[in-house]
Structure formats: structure tokens, C-alpha cells
Amino acid sequence: MIFTGFAIIALTLLMFAVYVEPAKAAEQIAIVSHQGFLDSTGYYVVYGEVKNNGDTPAKNVYVKITFSSPSGSDEDEVEISLHTILPGRKASFMGDASAQGSTVTGYQIELMDLTMPTEDLPKVLEIVSANSEVTMINMMITGTVKNNGAETATYTRVYATAYDGPSGTGNVVATAGGTAQPYNVDPGQTGTFQIGFFMTSGKSYTSIVLVAESDQYEATTEYVTATGQSSTTSPSASASPTSQASSAAPSSSASLNPSPSIPEFSFLLPFPY
């Protein structure tokens, strides 16, 4: 009877832990910035980033972006760039409206209830070097990543987040990623990467933050580099300057409404400090 009682208690505690841990992991993730604007193809996009404010790594982080237009609304559910977000680190995301961008009148963004805790992987992947080059209407980022671990880093990936401020500050203006070549990097060896993204007229691409991860490892630190580049390309014919939007105030969930005379969106909800 005593053994059965202990077994019941242990099973109850296990069920409680399974129930509580995902909620705790979700609570430690916060949306720290986002902005929406018409991209170079004339479609409305939202770029932003989340941060892990907790003390444990988190995975399976998704955001839902709901776009509004005269014809109704549509949703885009997107996973943030990194599969695992370490404590204190940020990760970017991007979503776009299915309707033509000039018809979008606002958007609302929120975290989805899918976040889970995960194991703390060794931090041994190192971005050794990186260079950026602007060609026509896009920016190409090339570099090398090194595996300082004791085993092969399988499916090694590098993610780039571009900001309109120096040293990874300001708003996210682009995010992209790619696999290393080779994507399985042996111990002590390096792999090369190449990441590209389109640039939008009127946006500044001042700095880039690079971070790497593999199935077994995480990056030692984030690699920050300056670009000093701004887009001077002509926008699509469907991109109306008065419909472009940006915001400096962060929010975990905010609805934005455009003004026909001011190319800025104002937040309706304050940031939950």
C-alpha cells in the first residue's frame, strides 16, 4: 500500500511537471520589437524578434501575425529563426500577408502557446569571419563557422538578422538563414556559409548579427558586424510610400493602424513592463 501510494504521488508530480514546464517556458519568451512595411516586391511584411528572459533554453517558439485589409484578415504562423533560444538571447522572425501589401491596413502579433523547455546544448560553434556585399537590390553575407566541439556538428545552420541601428540595435529590417557547406562540420573544422536577402527602398541596413546552431551545439557568442548600407532601389509600382510602416515601441501584442498622411504606425497597446 505504501509503495502504491508513492507510485501515485510520483505519477502525479510527473504529470504536473509536464503540464507546468511548457507554460513556464512560454512565459519566459517575450516579443521585444517588430515593425511592418511594404517590401521591394510590394508585399506587406512584418519583421521582429523575441527574447528569452528566463534561465533555461526554449524551443518550438512561434508567433502568429494577423493582417487586416478591407477584404478581411489572414494569418501567418511562423517559427522564429533559431530552433533553440538560449537564456538572454534573441531570435528574429518574419511573416508576410497573402494579400497585396498596399491593401493591408494593420496587423496584430502574438506568441503562440507552443513553446517548450529544452536541454542546454554546449556552446562551441564559432562564427570566425563574415563579410557583406550589396549587389543590385540584395545583400549577400558570406563567412565561415568553426566547430570547436568534440563531435561532428550535424546540420549546421547560420542565421543573419539585419538591423537599422548599430551593433544589433533598432528595428529588424531583414532576416535570413542558410546551412553551412559542408553542413556536417567535423571537430576542429570550418564550414562556409552564404546568406542573401532583398533590400527595401528607404530602409537602412546598418548592422548584422550572426548566430549558428547545429543538432548538438549552439554558438559561443553572437557575431556582430557593421554594414553601413542603405537601400536606394526603386520600390515596386504597387508600393505606396504612405503605406510604409515602422515602429520604435515594442509590444507583446499590438494592433497597428496606418495614417494616409503619416508613414508611421502608432501602437494601441503599451509594452507590458
Describe the structure concisely:
With 273 residues, the chain is mostly beta strands. Helices cover 10% and strands 47% of the residues.
Structural class by secondary-structure content: mainly beta
What fraction strand?
Answer: over 45%
Mean pLDDT: 79
Query: How helix-rich are the residues, as a percent range?
Result: under 10%
Q: Can you walk through the features of this model?
A:
With 273 residues, the protein is mainly beta. Helices cover 10% and strands 47% of the residues. The chain has a four-stranded mixed beta sheet, with no helix packed on it. A four-stranded antiparallel beta sheet has the order 13-12-15-17, with no helix packed on it. The relative contact order is 0.18. The C terminus is likely disordered.
